[in-house]
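Could you help me review a protein record that somebody else here produced? What it holds is a sequence and that sequence's fold in token form. I need someone to confirm that the token line plausibly describes how this chain folds. Take the sequence as given and treat only the tokens as open to question. This is what I was given:
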Amino acid sequence: MAGDIKNKVQGLDPNVRARDVKGMVEHTKSIYETLNIITKRAKQLQVDIKHELHNKLEEFAVSTDAIEEITENKEQIEISKFYERLPNPVIIATEEYNAGELHFSYRDKKKDDRF
């Protein structure tokens, strides 16, 4: 995921919009299960994006002896702006769910759903 976040969100509308709830529950038969799947994926995306952002910012970090001295460079600012403009992880996860890219399974049931 980390390497393809730029490709994954290309052309993705970052704005919240109405969704077809009936279409979203076709696979789970429950809006609560559907939202649970999307929420778990959004949390994964959030952790991955945060990790990726910190790794990229570390590449341009300048170490100094003074604790109070914080220096920012142009590359760090541009990277931060890019990540600020990314769609919310919930929007990304919802698009993945609607595109059938998410796989989920039930631990308690012997049923394994994939779509």
Residues 2-8+19-98 form one domain. The longest helix spans residues 31-59. The mean pLDDT is 81. Helices lie at 5-9, 21-24, 31-59, 74-85, 89-98.
